[in-house]
Design goal:
The longest helix is centred in the last third of the chain and has 21 residues, at about 165-185. This protein folds into two domains: about 5-105, no CATH class; about 130-210, no CATH class. The chain is mainly α. The chain is built from twelve helices and no strands. Helix 1 runs antiparallel to helix 2 (about 25-40), helix 2 (about 25-40) runs antiparallel to helix 4 and helix 4 runs antiparallel to helix 5. The protein has helices at about 5-25, 25-40, 45-50, 50-65, 70-85, 90-100, 105-120, 130-140, 140-145, 165-185, 185-195, 205-210. It is about 70% helix and about 0% strand.
């Protein structure tokens, strides 16, 4: 048995090791350290040390996904999701989207990301015909809404500082790749998903800049 102080020190050491390994793209090593940190977690931490167990659990989930340990991911994800407070739900679900992405389950990826946008009141239709009509409408307002900017670059722009808006932009950014897979059977829609200035985010710039 180890004491609580020693336990927390070991967790911190493993967290640092995960970051160092991940920064070096040593994902296998990162997973080993993340597994060790996760093994030190107690169920009671969800009440007594929420910040720590949430950070460690998310770290483990990301490492598991990146190492194709999908069963391990799917075992822990529901536990983290059920215990996460409301403001942390999106982070947990973005990890789920990553897990689907790495398995090339692009429709599932889009559904998760789309559900997260809906949490912020942004409703996108996954119906091809409705999406086509939406894209056509938004093409008409590209220059006015984007003001010469590319949505891919917006999360790094200094003029946006609201964490909520940055999170929404991050979700939209993640969806760029996956809509092409979901809609590639419809050439008209495909051509409206791929352009350098991504039209899907345009309708929200009226809200974004308010």
């Amino acid at each position: 048995m180890i004491g609580e102080t020693e336990r927390l020190e070991l967790v911190l050491l493993n967290q640092r090791a995960v970051k160092k390994a991940s920064d070096s793209s040593a994902f296998a090593a990162a997973y080993i350290y993340a597994t060790e940190a996760q093994s030190l977690m107690k169920e009671e931490y969800w009440q007594s040390n929420y910040k720590l167990i949430f950070e460690v659990s998310c770290m483990y989930l990301e490492c598991a996904a990146l190492n194709a340990e999908y069963e391990k991911f799917e075992k822990l994800h529901p536990i983290v999701s059920n215990n996460a407070v409301a403001e942390d739900k999106t982070k947990v679900n973005l990890l789920l989207a990553l897990n689907y992405e790495l398995q090339q389950k692009y429709q599932d990826t889009v559904k998760v990301l789309n559900a997260e946008l809906a949490r912020f009141g942004i409703i996108l239709s996954l119906d091809p015909e409705k999406a086509r009509d939406m894209f056509i409408r938004e093409f008409e307002s590209i220059s006015n809404n984007l003001r010469g900017r590319n949505i891919i670059d917006l999360p790094n722009d200094e003029f946006i500082t609201d964490p909520k808006k940055l999170l929404i932009l991050d979700i939209l950014k993640r969806m760029v790749c996956f809509f092409s897979f979901v809609y590639s059977y419809n050439k008209l829609i495909f051509l409206r998903v791929i352009p350098h200035t991504w039209v899907l985010g345009l309708m929200y710039f009226r809200w974004l800049f308010q």
